[in-house]
């Protein structure tokens, strides 16, 4: 095997987990030993030139993979080399966009933009290399790329194949060459077409050695750069080849300075250091640019896919299969997030560094340590403002000689994608012709669409929309991308399209012909062969075109999107986050038939989930993995996870407002604190009783409900819970939008003054709608996190929310000079009176009802628990944390009345945070981070209390089409956009009261579940029959009449009180007794349903549903084992007839006999 090649199969490496001691020892070895500092690397290799007549060495440098140990000196050297290779790509876009041909900003602002581009590129790349598992118009539009990343990877690759990415990238380069060449000749600004005497010379008449545009001197300066780049490529050492553009730029600058073309004034006046946010820009949304930038970000996604593929290949990572698809998906997501963050850091958005594959192929280094060093050097370059000022002072002709070369390289890389990844049959030639006709025409004649729309009215919205269309139609690469994408989708692949090839029916091999009609000497295994699948009759069922993965983007990224990013997004590992794989560079990923792509979007059958061979459901019953018992490896919830979950979920906006609502009805803090404690203790009892079912059987609520309600009646409980979960998900989105409004108003006060273009009947303003949409987009990716991976979200919320609660409390007390007057208030009713007692019970039941949903769906989370007993901590922990948070809310609210001019209490924490906006820059900073913390808290509440609950319900209702991830998306869409929560909150008081009284229905549901498991079934379920519509839990026609009666009886007496709460007096008049009964509706419904269901089940037992031991599985297909405590249900292993456990979870002798083979 050639030593330049890797082994035939390389398993992707992963970073081993290390303790703190391991890290300290590694640091010591890295910096204080010869092996760690220098190693045995041949440093001469990097600096050996390729001069004529020199003896060429056949020895190849070693390849440094992702987690390989690398000497510190070598990491610094290669990191610096990569930073220099990236330098031109980072600085060119901000210089061009802020120069005379663009925004024509001042020299100081240009210097700031260059510094910021370098710093932000280093920061974002460092974040990505670390593998965190993660506004102006560009920041908003970058969200489209984030949305694209959540497409299924195969669908993404179907939509953006080489036939789309190739011509798009080529047109991007062609579009930019004009700017580069104009700069080469003296400048691309007004001096290229002077309209006044001031610009008669380039860059203007006041510049040193100003000359007319196109002068021979300018041509010579540009050629000095161009020729230097060529010489470095031909004769330079490896380190010179990868930095040839920078070396050419340096040579051009030296010549320009020696001949007097270099202006030092900007360098002398520049500060010594700079950083992000030294200058800020007004936060505005420019309507006409939204559609064009959305198009640009779609194109950016296509470019990122090609970059990632090429870089993964040269870094010896596989470029097909699930891992590669995951890298593609994560890469596009990271590219979009980088666009948002870069815009918020006051620089044009960052995208992937397209030359990664070339640099890695040259240096043979894809190591994380070198990546960190590269980021460090970029940040240092940006911080030293004198360096940025030197870059800004580079004469236009020198810069043009470099950029013309780079922009042409972009176009050539697009050609490479086309030639290597697109078979030249008739269909593909037609697509390329159509796309390039419109795109290239728009590039050459960019004003052709100016006079299409003749609207001259006063409607600014319509005018902006038409301007946006014109801008898109006059952007050549955007038209090319959309035309190629559309035609690739609608044009069928036909077998006759493969011109110039012979198809051998028995093998399916396509053999190319030479010009004489014979087979090419390269044979059927040539890199350029595109195998076509078909059947033995010569008629294919489906044509699979294999794309070659030579999508090498050796050009610069789109200059209009600005700086480069060394993170090439190989599954979040960045450019240096690479693992070894030595598969060849040819025929690695299958292209997809476009008929299949269309069918997937238009046919319900195509949206079906893959049929899951269930470990427990009977044959013929459709399930999916999210409905089955959780396998042991996915049980990731420990005691600390449960504590973190409740710490974060209880500390939210509604908890802090609950105490205030108790005080508002006439009780004092002396009553409020015990009410909160007793109310949450009651609900905690229900949570522990029902949570035990999930922690023992490891199945969701929607499956557990079968045992108590029957296979079909359970759908009533499921639908009831799902509707409520989606409704509150939408309401929480409205709260989250308020957080976004405060954050953006803190960032740019002008955001709060956005004019409203929506009618009053909409129930929301333009600013509110924008904030709502932004919150929904931010929240959506987090809603898709699987419950087994929620722990990091809990920890983030656990850090953010207590900090803002305590900070708000401290600020309010300090402003008021104490805790306020709430602690001196007395209840309006004397203790011991009936009104006092009923009011006390009413508030206690309201506290319990606030968490009534969780009493039902708690098994959805605790099914992932490692231990069945860990969940018992809820009984103590939930009341304590809730009461503590409520007490802090009381103190904070009391203090606000002291310094409020109108003397009113502020019950909503967001109202307090919004007060900080008026306290100068420091107050705005506090408001921003305070709102950010509440935004995190709101998202956490939506994920845990609403999204996962609704998703589990939808999974059971539609198992053929919906799993937890799809269910979360459906719930997010319905809750936010179908229910229209902002309109409900603005106008539908009756509906709000109804949803608030929904606990009347939920309390009996949770009581019936608890009674069935603990008192009737004695903790023994037949788990397989919970999935069987004809099993022992069918009852009568799939309905358990006992559960129906136990539900109706406690609900019916509370309906009059519920009607009064919804419609109010005098619309509804009921007796005082009915009102008092409704005062403790949740407690009444929970207790009565338990008593009634248990009594009916004892008097008229459903004997067929009772088993002596818990049956975990049956049949001759799959065994599921249990541990001693009954907490573990393993994955399928051995065929078995019946496996049972005793009621306490221990295996019976019969089950042990079956396992031992002696039964």
UniProtKB/TrEMBL annotation:
<keyword id="KW-0813">Transport</keyword>
<feature type="transmembrane region" description="Helical">
    <location>
        <begin position="926"/>
        <end position="948"/>
    </location>
</feature>
<feature type="compositionally biased region" description="Basic and acidic residues">
    <location>
        <begin position="1122"/>
        <end position="1136"/>
    </location>
</feature>
<dbReference type="GO" id="GO:0042907">
    <property type="term" value="F:xanthine transmembrane transporter activity"/>
</dbReference>
<feature type="transmembrane region" description="Helical">
    <location>
        <begin position="995"/>
        <end position="1016"/>
    </location>
</feature>
<keyword id="KW-0812">Transmembrane</keyword>
<feature type="transmembrane region" description="Helical">
    <location>
        <begin position="792"/>
        <end position="813"/>
    </location>
</feature>
<feature type="transmembrane region" description="Helical">
    <location>
        <begin position="837"/>
        <end position="856"/>
    </location>
</feature>
<feature type="transmembrane region" description="Helical">
    <location>
        <begin position="672"/>
        <end position="693"/>
    </location>
</feature>
<comment type="similarity">
    <text>Belongs to the nucleobase:cation symporter-2 (NCS2) (TC 2.A.40) family.</text>
</comment>
<feature type="transmembrane region" description="Helical">
    <location>
        <begin position="218"/>
        <end position="237"/>
    </location>
</feature>
<feature type="transmembrane region" description="Helical">
    <location>
        <begin position="274"/>
        <end position="299"/>
    </location>
</feature>
<feature type="transmembrane region" description="Helical">
    <location>
        <begin position="1041"/>
        <end position="1062"/>
    </location>
</feature>
<dbReference type="InterPro" id="IPR006042">
    <property type="entry name" value="Xan_ur_permease"/>
</dbReference>
<feature type="transmembrane region" description="Helical">
    <location>
        <begin position="764"/>
        <end position="785"/>
    </location>
</feature>
<feature type="transmembrane region" description="Helical">
    <location>
        <begin position="244"/>
        <end position="262"/>
    </location>
</feature>
<feature type="region of interest" description="Disordered">
    <location>
        <begin position="1122"/>
        <end position="1159"/>
    </location>
</feature>
<feature type="transmembrane region" description="Helical">
    <location>
        <begin position="469"/>
        <end position="491"/>
    </location>
</feature>
<feature type="transmembrane region" description="Helical">
    <location>
        <begin position="73"/>
        <end position="92"/>
    </location>
</feature>
<keyword id="KW-1133">Transmembrane helix</keyword>
<dbReference type="GO" id="GO:0005886">
    <property type="term" value="C:plasma membrane"/>
</dbReference>
<feature type="transmembrane region" description="Helical">
    <location>
        <begin position="112"/>
        <end position="134"/>
    </location>
</feature>
<comment type="similarity">
    <text>Belongs to the purine-cytosine permease (2.A.39) family.</text>
</comment>
<keyword id="KW-0472">Membrane</keyword>
<feature type="transmembrane region" description="Helical">
    <location>
        <begin position="1082"/>
        <end position="1100"/>
    </location>
</feature>
<feature type="transmembrane region" description="Helical">
    <location>
        <begin position="699"/>
        <end position="717"/>
    </location>
</feature>
<feature type="transmembrane region" description="Helical">
    <location>
        <begin position="430"/>
        <end position="449"/>
    </location>
</feature>
<feature type="region of interest" description="Disordered">
    <location>
        <begin position="1"/>
        <end position="21"/>
    </location>
</feature>
<feature type="transmembrane region" description="Helical">
    <location>
        <begin position="398"/>
        <end position="418"/>
    </location>
</feature>
<dbReference type="InterPro" id="IPR006043">
    <property type="entry name" value="NCS2"/>
</dbReference>
<feature type="transmembrane region" description="Helical">
    <location>
        <begin position="370"/>
        <end position="392"/>
    </location>
</feature>
<protein>
    <submittedName>
        <fullName>NCS1 nucleoside transporter</fullName>
    </submittedName>
</protein>
<feature type="transmembrane region" description="Helical">
    <location>
        <begin position="724"/>
        <end position="744"/>
    </location>
</feature>
<dbReference type="Pfam" id="PF00860">
    <property type="entry name" value="Xan_ur_permease"/>
</dbReference>
<feature type="region of interest" description="Disordered">
    <location>
        <begin position="503"/>
        <end position="537"/>
    </location>
</feature>
<dbReference type="GO" id="GO:0000324">
    <property type="term" value="C:fungal-type vacuole"/>
</dbReference>
<dbReference type="Pfam" id="PF02133">
    <property type="entry name" value="Transp_cyt_pur"/>
</dbReference>
<feature type="transmembrane region" description="Helical">
    <location>
        <begin position="155"/>
        <end position="177"/>
    </location>
</feature>
<feature type="transmembrane region" description="Helical">
    <location>
        <begin position="876"/>
        <end position="899"/>
    </location>
</feature>
<dbReference type="InterPro" id="IPR001248">
    <property type="entry name" value="Pur-cyt_permease"/>
</dbReference>
<feature type="transmembrane region" description="Helical">
    <location>
        <begin position="969"/>
        <end position="989"/>
    </location>
</feature>
């Amino acid at each position: 095997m050639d030593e330049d090649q890797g082994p035939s199969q390389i398993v992707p490496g992963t970073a081993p987990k290390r303790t703190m001691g391991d890290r300290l020892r590694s640091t010591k070895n890295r910096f204080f030993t010869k092996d760690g500092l220098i190693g045995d690397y041949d440093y001469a290799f990097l600096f050996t030139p390729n001069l004529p007549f020199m003896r060429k060495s056949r020895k190849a440098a070693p390849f440094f993979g992702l987690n390989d140990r690398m000497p510190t000196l070598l990491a610094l050297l290669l990191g610096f080399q990569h930073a220099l290779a990236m330098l031109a790509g980072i600085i060119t876009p901000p210089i061009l966009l802020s120069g005379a041909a663009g925004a024509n900003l001042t020299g100081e602002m240009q210097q700031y933009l260059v510094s910021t581009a370098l710093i932000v590129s280093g920061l974002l790349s460092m974040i990505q290399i670390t593998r965190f598992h993660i506004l102006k118009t560009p920041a908003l539009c970058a969200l489209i790329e984030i949305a694209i990343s959540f497409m299924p990877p195969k669908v993404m690759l179907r939509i953006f194949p080489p036939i789309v990415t190739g011509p798009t990238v080529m047109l991007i380069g062609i579009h930019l060459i004009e700017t580069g060449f104009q700069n080469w000749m003296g400048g691309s600004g007004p001096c290229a077409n002077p309209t006044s005497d001031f610009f008669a010379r380039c860059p203007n008449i006041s510049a040193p050695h100003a000359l007319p545009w196109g002068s021979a001197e300018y041509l010579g300066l540009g050629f000095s750069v161009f020729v230097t780049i060529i010489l470095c490529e031909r004769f330079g050492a490896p380190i010179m080849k990868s930095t040839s553009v920078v070396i050419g730029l340096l040579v051009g600058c030296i010549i320009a300075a020696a001949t007097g073309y270099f202006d030092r004034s900007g360098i002398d006046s520049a500060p010594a250091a700079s950083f992000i946010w030294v200058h800020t820009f007004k936060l505005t949304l420019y309507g006409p640019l939204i559609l064009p930038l959305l198009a640009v970000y779609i194109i950016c996604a296509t470019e990122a896919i090609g970059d990632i593929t090429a870089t993964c290949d040269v870094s010896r990572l596989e470029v097909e299969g699930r891992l590669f698809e995951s890298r593609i998906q994560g890469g596009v997501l990271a590219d979009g997030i980088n666009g948002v963050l870069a815009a918020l850091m006051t620089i044009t958005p960052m995208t992937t560094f397209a030359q990664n594959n070339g640099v890695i192929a040259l240096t043979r280094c894809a190591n994380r340590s070198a990546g960190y060093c590269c980021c460090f050097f970029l940040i240092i370059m940006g911080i030293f403002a004198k360096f940025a000022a030197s870059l800004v002072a580079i004469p236009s002709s020198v810069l043009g000689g470099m950029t013309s070369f780079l922009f042409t390289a972009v176009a050539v890389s697009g050609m490479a994608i086309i030639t290597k990844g697109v078979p030249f049959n008739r269909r593909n030639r037609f697509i390329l012709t159509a796309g390039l006709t419109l795109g290239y025409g728009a590039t050459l004649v960019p004003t052709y669409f100016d006079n299409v729309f003749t609207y001259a009215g006063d409607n600014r919205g319509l005018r902006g929309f038409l301007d946006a269309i014109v801008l898109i139609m006059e952007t050549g690469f955007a038209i090319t991308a959309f035309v190629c994408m559309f035609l690739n989708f609608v044009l069928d692949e036909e077998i006759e399209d493969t011109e110039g090839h012979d198809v051998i029916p028995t093998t399916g091999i396509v053999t190319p012909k030479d010009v004489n009609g014979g087979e090419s000497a390269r044979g059927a295994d040539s890199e350029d062969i595109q195998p076509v699948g078909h059947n033995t009759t010569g008629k294919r069922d489906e044509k699979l075109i294999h794309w070659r993965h030579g999508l090498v983007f050796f050009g610069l990224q789109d200059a209009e999107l600005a700086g480069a990013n060394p993170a090439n997004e190989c599954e979040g590992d960045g450019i240096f986050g690479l693992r070894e794989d030595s598969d060849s560079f040819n025929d690695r990923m299958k292209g997809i038939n476009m008929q299949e792509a269309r069918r997937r979007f238009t046919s319900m059958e195509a949206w079906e989930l893959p049929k899951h061979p269930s470990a427990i459901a009977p044959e013929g019953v459709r399930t999916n993995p999210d409905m089955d018992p959780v396998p042991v490896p996915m049980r990731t919830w420990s005691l600390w996870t449960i504590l973190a979950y409740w710490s974060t979920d209880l500390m939210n906006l509604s908890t802090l407002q609950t105490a205030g609502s108790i005080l508002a009805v006439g009780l004092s803090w002396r009553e409020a604190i015990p009410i909160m404690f007793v109310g949450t203790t009651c609900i905690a009892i229900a949570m522990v009783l029902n949570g035990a079912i999930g922690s023992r059987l490891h199945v969701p609520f929607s499956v557990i409900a079968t045992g108590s309600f029957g296979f079909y009646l359970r759908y009533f409980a499921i639908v009831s819970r799902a509707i409520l979960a989606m409704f509150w998900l939408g309401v929480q989105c409205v709260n989250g939008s308020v957080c976004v409004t405060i954050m953006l108003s803190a960032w740019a006060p002008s955001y709060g003054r956005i004019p409203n273009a929506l009618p009053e009947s909409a129930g929301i303003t333009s600013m509110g709608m924008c904030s709502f949409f932004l919150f929904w987009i931010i929240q959506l990716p987090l809603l898709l996190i699987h419950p087994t991976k929620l722990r990091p979200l809990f920890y983030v919320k656990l850090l953010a929310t207590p900090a803002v609660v305590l900070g708000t409390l401290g600020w309010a007390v300090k402003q008021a000079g104490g805790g306020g007057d709430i602690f001196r208030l007395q209840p309006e009713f004397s203790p011991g009176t009936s009104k006092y007692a009923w009011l006390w019970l009413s508030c206690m039941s309201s506290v319990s009802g606030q968490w009534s949903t969780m009493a039902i769906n708690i098994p959805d989370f605790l099914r992932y628990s490692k231990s069945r007993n860990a969940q018992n901590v809820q009984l103590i922990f939930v009341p304590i944390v809730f009461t503590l948070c409520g007490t802090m809310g009381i103190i904070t609210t009391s203090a606000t009345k002291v310094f409020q001019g109108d003397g009113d209490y502020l019950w909503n924490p967001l109202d307090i945070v919004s007060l900080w906006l008026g306290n100068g820059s420091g107050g705005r900073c506090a408001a921003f981070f305070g709102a950010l913390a509440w935004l995190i808290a709101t998202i956490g509440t939506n994920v845990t209390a609403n999204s996962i609950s609704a998703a589990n319900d939808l999974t059971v209702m539609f198992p053929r089409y919906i799993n937890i991830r799809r269910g979360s998306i459906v719930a997010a869409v319905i809750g936010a956009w179908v229910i229209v929560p902002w309109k409900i909150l603005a106008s539908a008081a009756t509906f709000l009261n109804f949803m608030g009284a929904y606990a009347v229905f939920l309390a009996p549901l949770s009581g019936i579940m608890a009674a069935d498991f603990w008192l009737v079934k004695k903790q023994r379920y037949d788990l397989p029959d919970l999935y069987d519509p004809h099993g022992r839990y069918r009852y009568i026609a799939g309905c358990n009449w006992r559960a129906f009666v136990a539900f109706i009886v406690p609900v019916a007496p509370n309906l009059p009180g519920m009607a009064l709460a919804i419609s109010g007096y005098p619309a509804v008049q009921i007796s005082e007794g009915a009102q008092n009964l409704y005062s403790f509706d949740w407690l009444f419904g929970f207790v009565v349903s338990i008593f009634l269901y248990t009594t009916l089940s004892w008097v008229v037992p459903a004997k067929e549903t009772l088993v002596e031991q818990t049956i975990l599985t049956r049949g001759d297909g799959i065994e599921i084992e249990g541990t001693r405590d009954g907490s573990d249900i393993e994955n399928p292993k051995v065929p078995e007839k019946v496996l049972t456990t005793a009621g306490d979870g221990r295996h019976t002798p019969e089950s042990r006999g079956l396992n031992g083979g002696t039964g």
